[in-house]
Records
---
Amino acid sequence: MSRKNYKEIVLVLITFISFHFSGNSQKTIQNIYGRERLSLNGSWKYIIDPYQMGYLDYRQKPFDESKSGKGGFYDNLTSMENSKAEYNFDFEPTLQVPGDWNSQDERLLFYEGTLWYKRDFTVSLKSDKKYFLHFGAVNYESHVYLNGKKLGVHKGGFTPFQFDVSDKLNDGNNFVVVMVDNTRKKDEVPTINTDWWNYGGITRDVTLVTTPASYIEDYKVQLAKADKDNIEGFIQVKGNNKKENVVLEIPELKIKSTFTTDENGYVKFTFPLKKVQYWSPEMPKLYQVTITSSTDKITDKIGFRTIKTVNKDILLNGKSIFLKGISVHDENPLLGGRLRSEGDMRMILNWAKDLGCNYIRLAHYTHNEAMLRLADEVGLFVWAEVPVYWTISWSNPETYKNAENQLTVGIERDKNRASIAIWSVGNETPISNERNIFMGKLIDKARSLDDTRLIAAALEVDREGYIATVDDALGEKLDLASFNEYGGWYWSEPKELPKYSFDIKFNKPVVISEFGAEAVAGFHGDEDTIWSEEFQELFYIKQLEMLERIDGLRGMTPWILVDFKSPRRQHPIHQNFWNRKGLISETGKKKKAFYILQNYYKYKTIDKKK
Ligand code: GCB
């Protein structure tokens, strides 16, 4: 091999290693909202770039992999500096961050491709601090550049990621450029086919987090598995590389314990908890928890509760409960876009509360951390999910790695949220050998990361005559018998539903993860008139009668709280790109069926005392 070739190979290898491993985002720090931080939300300049002009040269090679590393839009040249530059952020319009691009510019409603974001900011650097550039979520693939240098790549549209930028920031002016690509691809998670809008862009908060050089990176403070009396958790300090004392305080419970980390900054602990007010939807008690290391201090609000199953019962703090739920997408119908603010999130949660819910299914991907914190505060149990949806590429190891990563990051981020009762590993995945292996591994992974919560998936039913059977082998490995069924809509008629019964092969609590029917708010007819509110109303009456007969029914999340946007829903009169299974319209109007479910939840109890 010639010297030149050798050099080239080494260069390619280094590029590969830096972009695909070390240059990539790193594990995110716990509780960024509890840190010293600079919000980079607000107006960002943007360039629509369908040909990836700002990323690839005319031979389709990435500029950032060339020798100079220059040539892309991330250089952020202005015409003052270089009159031949064929772009200029300064004269472009702005998008609001957080927020999807589709709902902010008519040209972008259906856009699937590449778009560049740019924002300037200033920092006054302190030499004894560390700085992390943190993204709440960007859909789907993002390439992040700071002051013209690449920080790395991230894939996955719903999970947070961050870069350590401590030695890359300028004291004073800085600029960050992000290339976002929301092109759907077969081997990604989710895959090309979903029943929701493929909102692109920087959809969640961007934050510059500041910590001391040695900082508390992560912690878990939760009750041990099914144990009402003991806290089990860990603290991870980073940056010191030596043993040190860390103090954990819960002032209201008069708890103050000191633990000593190992030389990697890690300590695992258990300690007893007395006279505690357990968290529940009726009484969502949160305690202030403070962790102090030799250099850092962080405060969180944490609730304590146990959840487990015994045969067909779900026990919350030892008592049998019924999960009165509703499914929810991360979307504000009034905007026709992703939820952006706390106000948006509270609107959704208030609707769920108004319906009488104690539980929500945050379908079909990881929702905003702020949403989980609000669920903790207002008292709603949560089913949290990863976008392993329908038919993804079961035998591609990269696809598995991606799904596992999204699951892991979601669990790591939200492990201290009492509201999360259930980790779901997927939705309506078709049975096959490859899928069983994939999903089996994902279930094991979820359990190994967090065995204090229930693990579930939305399975499907088989029908023959008037019998709907649930016997997906995955059910053996899961904690719930949960499945979607569309009796009265995709199959059969509402009036026929009393004839159906369920044959569920698992001695586990039955939690119906979906059922639903479409109705256009304000469209009235008799109960046989499809798309009318009356049709949906009768549908709910008959569904609830049918489901009531299931032995071991312990909860449900009908599909869905609010009408939501989907490219699959084309009917020009009834749908116009809205899935109309909501109990509330896209303008916030409650349909008749809302009141049927509200009434059902009002009187629903578990008769058995456990
Ligand atoms: C389902 C899917 C959900 C769809 C829904 C529907 O089974 O899980 O994502 O939106 O049906 O409306 O068809």
---
Amino acid sequence: MIDGKKVLFSGMQSTGNLTLGNYLGALKNWVALSDEYECFYSVVDMHSITVRQEPAGLRKRARNLLTLYIAAGLDPDKNCIYYQSHVSGHAELAWILNCFTYTGELNRMTQFKDKAAKHADNINAGLYTYPVLMAADILLYQADVVPVGKDQLQHLEITRDIAQRFNAIYGDVFTIPEPYMGKAGANIRSLQNPEKKMSKSDENANASIYLMDDPDTVIRKFKRAVTDLDASVRYREEQPGIKNLIEIYCACTGKTPAETEKEFDGKGYSEFKLAVGEAVAGVLKPIQDRFYELSKDKAYIDGIIKKNAEKADYYAMKTLRKVQKKVGFPERVR
Ligand code: TYM
């Protein structure tokens, strides 16, 4: 609790361009929850270097991501929006938690297995202990709730296990966090292959809608989206392509799958795809406009970066000092 409010933590990697999946699965919910909780939203640049990055590109993407958080509707005066690498407590707590995490647990992480297969020439220890850094992010702020997409649930589970293990030894040190997923949009699939999630790192640009795609591009990508043979707009497992488009439509319009089926009853795919494209473009346009406007104001963004890093550091240090004492590190005399 901070000032009587429960705490929320979440983050995104500054790797690649943000997709509609990131927005509907996470960012949109962040904005919706931001009044109810004391919120920490991090640009997790330390996670990004588990895959080789070009330095200037990483710096630029991290700044764009931080700006995008604000452009999407997070008020930086109320929400703590900051770079993970500016708060050293993340790395320090991660080391301690590494000593409370079993390799058997890490071996089971599906994201590690996927990424290791994709980057076979660079299966580094950071990629392997990535979930421990993620646990540190969350536990450092004593977060009650963590809004994420479905692909991150396994990491939330290991975070809870590590926290419970630590608490069982040292007493009630960490708050046990709960995941939060929105009604629609927690599991957006690729537009070219609904077997796969929509991902920043997909090589096929038509598979993902990027947050900065212009309306024509958005509509074109939806027109080309892979659908199924049965030309009816039905929300069911046997039509994974259309099911995905219905979910996107619902997440953007607030309608339910049943309402959507009714709306497009007797209509063909092309009409539906156009409606989805227009709904998505309508959601993205104001975010893009605000992003370009904010990007011009360097001093404003710099001010937020500084002020919020100090705030995050304050709360991070509170937890870190407590943890260091619990595990038996000597008291500081300076
Ligand atoms: P990242 O950067 O891959 O994704 C950011 C958020 O977007 C969600 N997401 C999706 N949701 C629905 N459909 C999709 N296709 C889709 N793709 C991505 C993710 O679930 C996530 O919520 N490890 C995290 C970043 C992280 C973090 C944390 C998150 C580091 N520390 C602590 C929460 C708390 C990641 O790589 O997310």
---
Amino acid sequence: MQPLYLADLINLAQAPLYLLIAFLALLSVKTAPRPRHVLALYALVSVAWLGAQVVWNRGALPFLLNDFKFRLPLYGLLLLAIILFWFVRAYLLVGGSGWGWWSLGVVWTGALLLLDSSRASTSDILWTGGGWMVLRDDFLRGGIALGWCLFTGAAVMTTLLAFRRTRQPLVRNRIRYLVLILLLVIAGQVAFLATYWTLGSLVSLPGVLIAAYAALTPRLPSLRRAMQRSLSYLITTGLALLFYLAALTLSLSAFRATQGTSPWLVGISLAAVLAVFFTPLLSQAQKWIDRLIAGVSHDPARILRQYSQDISNILDLDLLAKVVTELIGNALDISRGHLFTVSYEKAPEGGNCYRLQGVKGKGEEDPVPGILLEESPLANYFRYQRPPLPQSDIDNLPRFGGTPADERQWLSTLQMEVYVPIHSKDEWIGLLALGPKNSGEPFWDDDLFLLSSLADQTAVALENARLVESLVRLNNDFRRAIAALDQANRNLERLDRTKTDFISVASHELHSPLTLVNAYSQMLLEDPELASNPEYAKMLSGIHSGAQRLHEIVESMLDMAKIDTRELQLDLQPVSLGDLISSINEKLDAALKERNQKFEALDLTSLPAIQGDREALRKVFHHLLTNAIKYTPDGGKITVSGQALYPTRELLTESGVELVVSDTGIGIDPSMHEVIFTKFYQTGELALHSSGKTKFKGAGPGLGLAISKGIVEAHFGRIWVESPEHDEVRCPGSQFHVYLPLHQPEKTRPRPVI
Ligand code: ADP
């Protein structure tokens, strides 16, 4: 057994790394599969290739002929060159199957292997002539080297052409990575061809590692920036080294010059000088070098501070969109951007969706609104993820493969380069869409990180602006509703005035002729000659009662007109309500008998007399009792009860009397308790009312309760009704309450108006 050489150890140590790369490339799912699979193949072949080198070094595998064993790693190299070319095509997403190339590779390698294996039948010298001799070994090595050059050259050419063909910064960045990979791998393989095997494998290893990084990372950071940073780091480190050396030399000479001084003292002074001057100097130098190499870059902390200051007080959505896109545009050198508000709603074709409403920001055009279906990959991303999403990710990453065509179409009309979701309390409320940078540079990770922080700052302001906007909308709706109400109110007032005018005019015009008709019909009725003829007597009595009924209605209209026009004059005198009720009762006795109804007045004689207008109050109770008779079926009962009321601190300020007219009639629905006191109000259909003053449900003009209320309130009293329901079968009954104060106040106090 031969001992292991250092070269063998180095080769064996690389093998696990290649296996790991193959393993990761096969397992990862975040990036396109083709480059990953080819990379895994490359890594596995590399392991075999390293193994072949160990075999060669140790002269193992005795069954293989020695010279073939020497060429084995070279065949591996050819195979690696073919796979590298394959990787380049997969990485650059070159279309077509590339069968021509693969056939060439197979034929080339096959022919060489065939020649190699015909060792027994052919001589080692393939050709002699002209003083030249071609050995088989040389021919084979030459063939392998030529094949290697062919495929490696093709890989380089494909890369350079792809770089020239594209202007897209992100694609160019990807290709830059490829250039670096090719540089390292090819340099390593050239070293190998030049027989520096170990060096060769060590140089190509970083290339393969970078290839793994590039093939497995969805969003590659800027290679140029990484280079710039490394360069700036190298220069700064060099400077630091120089500084330290200078300080050391100085301190040594100082130490020598001041013989006898304590070395501690010199050391401490040196440390103090370094601490005071070195750190600020170095950081300043770092800044200069950065600026020199990378140009002016933004300061995220300053931008964030300025941004949150500028937008914190904005409550107007349009202004917010303008300021936000303006500030971000200036910070990142972008000339177009929109802010979208997001609302969750029902989708037009069923299901739910997010509606994105654009608010005009930086740029000329108005943003096109969009709809994202709830289950679409885009909505899913914006709903649950915070980091900004570049358009290139939507185009390339497998997770966005299922994006519906119209959502892609919407994005392409926007022509933006990055989308930044805005969340407030885990709810997706907005989206910032930003156009490309003016420099043509893509959005790098630090830009995206800055945008993500800016989106967080925007959330509160956007939420506030949205709230204010909905408040303003609500306020406008409210104002419109008030204006409509106002208009309706004015119309109602006009209608009411017309009604009042009509009542006033009609009652005044009808009053005089009706008085005449009434008087003459009375005279005719009293004529003995006419009375002796039963036919005439009947006709005259009909005319007279009709004229009287008409007279009563016109009287009611006159009363109503007086109440409406506030012309009602009260002739105040002491009134005993008990007497008043019994005198009304006498008049209604005939009707009660006709309807077979019982009447009862409970204890009204003990009530104190009140100050009021007897005739007006007579009308009040006349209407109430007539109504009670009308809305109570035959055989029912009407009761009038009363009580004297004395002031209580909370409810009543003056002494008075409360009278209650109760019946066992059809009752009144509680929802009607207020409206029945308005003029011309009647429940039920007019056509169904039976006519007649005291007939069951007999029709009236709908003025009785309105007049009663007007008169009671003119006495500073109150009238209201209590009844559980309206039911013509069960007849729950109604109670009309009338409260009247004992005394009327001075005239100066305004009387209430109905
Ligand atoms: P009308 O001339 O129709 O009687 P009113 O103003 O006196 O007009 O009454 C208004 C409406 O109130 C009536 O049409 C009736 O529906 C209802 N109403 C009044 N009094 C009673 C009552 N005692 N029982 C049931 N309904 C009543």
---
Amino acid sequence: METNLCEVQVNVGSLNPTNQKQISMRDATIVNIRGIEVGGSEIVVFAGPCAVENMEQLFETARLVKANGAKILRGGAFKPRSSPHSFQGLGLEGLKLLSQISKETGLPIVTEVMDTRQVDVVAQYADILQVGSRNMQNFPLLKEVGISGKPVLLKRGMMATIDEFLQATEYIMKEGNDQIIMCERGIRTFETSTRNTLDLNAIPMLKSRTHFPVIVDPSHGTGIRWMVPPMAKGAIAVGADGLIMEVHYQPEKALCDGQQSLSPEEFKLLMKDLKGIALAVGRTI
Ligand code: PEP
Ligand code: MN
């Protein structure tokens, strides 16, 4: 049967961006992950290591992010690495560790699926399927995660326009899945002093053009640990519905992205500071 879900989406092609109203809270899509609502008035923090490395690393990191207010545990089992010689993730073993730690801590998990052939297995273990930046326009993958019916965390492609990002959500919706969280994670520009350029313009723009929750990844958006807290605060100030951040119990020993991972103390301090920012914009965290 044909689905009409895609018609719920604001028509991305026909809007004049200079003349838009905010989508009202009443029309917002709330993505519910085992009782945690993303897209409502509460700001939801997703945190955890870049990659699942071993039981101790995942458990210790999960424990500390939970104790400081994170609601969802992140961690890659299948990692998209620029070099084939870098650590590629633990694969299935990583999924099993995530699932075990999720049971022990009660935190739902988000983890990346890189390939259509992995969708079934990742969906068996994860609460949210992450489609990474490099795959935002992998249309067969968007279709498969749509068919899976699982909540999807869709990261913005590093060269993708806002229109392309919105159209990617329509591929997922077309399969009858409207449980989508969009994530701004920085785009490639001429600037080389940071890993990416975190496009905070994208937050109010997306919030005016889609009913989906929009979260921000200041870890990949900057690539630099000390820049994560100020950009996380900025993201909340401009209307993000949540944050996804890399945290490691021993960042200096991380197998992946240690340079942008917050230490336990840094994460704790940031979560305290974010409460004040949330309050200032009429939200809770
Ligand atoms: C990640 O979140 O682990 C990741 C690889 O991010 P991105 O796809 O945004 O580069
Ligand atoms: Mn990473």
